[in-house]
Predict the 3D structure of the following.
Amino acid sequence: MKTKNVVLSALFIALSAIGANIKIMGTIAFDSISSLTVPQ
């Protein structure tokens, strides 16, 4: 039972890290795209 909790915790942490990375990448991509498309 204890190993199951450890695995679930690891999965949750991994998902959180992946989600944060996707959010950061998406924000950077959105910023660069919007700065490219907006006329200077």
Remarks:
- The mean pLDDT is 87.
- Helices lie at 2-37.
- DSSP finds one helix and no strands in the chain.
